[in-house]
Write a structure and sequence with these properties.
Length: about 475
């Protein structure tokens, strides 16, 4: 049964199906976390035509099996008569194939809503494709599902969109961004505009536009009416099977970490990023003492912890002079930040500092107020580290461009002294220097803002805040 406006729905679902099939085919020969396996289905898998009521669902419950049937049924009237006669057997064979093809859960990234998040959960704001995949796998390990596999029949459109975006991000977006930051100026066209600027501008706009499109598609498909499914099909959406497990074991360290964390919720489990530094120092000290077998070492750890805590209580900083994190920028501030990287000298980190301080001021923060370091949150500390690293990399790049020698150009000049190679002729090293900040620290920070300590989890309020926006799972 197709929902209303079938042509539009079929187009959306067809695009999603094509995207996920490309992932399946691309990673079909891999092992480990991207492993796929073929298994014989234990029961007929074609969708049974029963009297069970159906509901029109969004991407969280729109499975490949349901999407395939919707597309097949919509195209069937236009197919040759011989195909129409064999339609039942064709569909049954396709469902058997989709049920037999299994994908490791470690290769799939889930939408936050599928992990129990709602519109107010921190992970909905603080996430990138890599951090979302890390959170997905920590939740899988915590729940004991890491070695299980999902039949393509049960794979959902939401899982497809998030997984395709993850691989696209890692294999295309990240390399393009790093490459953009390494393109030399080459030659000046007019004023501050160089040939390098003209080359990198399409990359900058393309990455930004693609990211915005993904966010819009991901959000809208959850609430959309994509395909009609029965209650049993809805219950199997995204579910793994028990008759096949991948043999790769999860390292003990990962299992230990996964057992200590859970998905953050503003009402029942505060994010690690919101915890004060004093809590982190105390917890680290207790952990080290717990694994130590030497009483003398225990006393030394406790003494050092007391010294650190005392120093943090006595040392005050102006916390609001730490600029707002770029993840907290408004849409307008983010747009200015993105376009501002093209400005010579001040674009990039210096401009982000100004935007971040302006953000603090606009939301009423007192820039002169001080607080002990012990009260600084993990997020404030990591944001300070982010800006410190970004400014350092920016200053190094300026030094190399104003009389200094870029290491790449210096190395080539040493290898080929008679070539006369200049910094404008080779890729800049600044792109690689800044990569650990963008794709290391930021990812780590997003994970800490998306997860909480399991020991802090408390029962959810009996009645959620009226400001919490429920996730629409389906429409009848």
């Amino acid at each position: 049964m197709l929902p209303r406006r079938p042509g539009r729905r079929v187009l959306i679902t067809a695009i999603s199906v094509a995207a996920v099939i490309s992932v399946v085919l691309s990673f079909g020969g891999e092992r480990g976390v991207t492993g796929l396996a073929m298994a014989q289905p234990s029961a007929p898998t074609a969708r049974a035509h029963t009297a069970e009521p159906e509901e029109c669902v969004g991407s969280r419950f729109a499975t490949f099996g349901a999407v395939y049937d919707a597309i097949f049924d919509s195209l069937l009237p236009k197919m040759p008569p011989e195909i129409q006669k064999r339609s039942a057997s064709i569909k049954a064979r396709a469902h058997r194939d989709m049920q037999g093809l299994r994908i490791s859960k470690l290769a799939v990234s889930n939408h936050p809503h599928d992990m129990g998040a709602d519109d107010e959960s921190p992970i909905m704001t603080y996430r990138d494709p890599i951090s979302q995949w890390i959170v997905t796998q920590l939740v899988n390990v915590r729940e004991g599902d890491a070695t299980e596999s999902i039949p393509v029949e049960n794979l959902t459109v939401a899982q497809a969109v998030e997984t395709v975006w993850l691989y696209l991000y890692v294999t295309v977006m990240v390399p393009l961004t790093v490459a953009r930051r390494t393109v030399p100026s080459i030659a000046t066209v007019a004023g501050p505009i160089s040939v390098g600027t003209l080359i990198t501008l399409p990359i900058l706009l393309g990455v930004f536009a693609t990211t915005q499109i993904y966010k819009s598609v991901s959000e809208r498909l959850v609430e959309a009416c994509i395909v009609s499914v029965t209650r049993s099909e809805k219950e199997n959406a995204g579910k793994s099977v028990k008759d096949l497990r991948f043999t790769d074991s999860v390292p003990a360290l990962i299992r230990d970490i996964a057992g200590q964390v859970d998905l953050a919720d503003p009402e029942s489990c505060p994010a690690i990023g919101d915890l004060p530094l004093s809590r982190i120092v105390s917890r680290t000290s207790n952990y080290l003492q717990a694994i130590s077998t030497n009483p003398v070492t225990d006393r030394q750890i406790a003494a050092m912890s007391d010294d650190v805590q005392r120093w943090m209580r006595q040392t005050h900083v102006q916390r609001n002079l730490i600029p707002a994190d770029p993840a907290d920028f408004t849409t307008a501030e983010s747009a200015i930040s993105q376009i501002g990287v093209l400005l010579p000298y001040v674009g990039g980190a210096p401009l982000d500092v100004v935007i971040g301080l302006s953000h603090n001021r606009n939301q009423g923060d007192n820039l002169a107020a001080t607080a002990p370091i012990s009260q600084l949150s993990v997020t404030k500390t990591l944001t300070a580290a982010y800006y410190a690293y970004a400014l350092s990399a920016h200053m190094i790049e300026l030094a190399w461009s104003q009389g200094g020698v870029d290491p790449a150009a210096a190395l080539l000049n040493d290898l080929f002294p008679s070539a006369g190679i200049t910094a404008e002729m080779v890729p800049k090293s600044s792109g690689i220097v800044g990569a650990p900040n963008l794709y290391g620290l930021v990812v780590y920070h997003n994970v800490l803002r998306s997860m909480c300590l399991a020991e802090d989890k408390r029962p959810a309020p009996t009645q959620q805040s009226t400001q919490r926006v429920p996730v629409s799972a389906a429409r009848w």
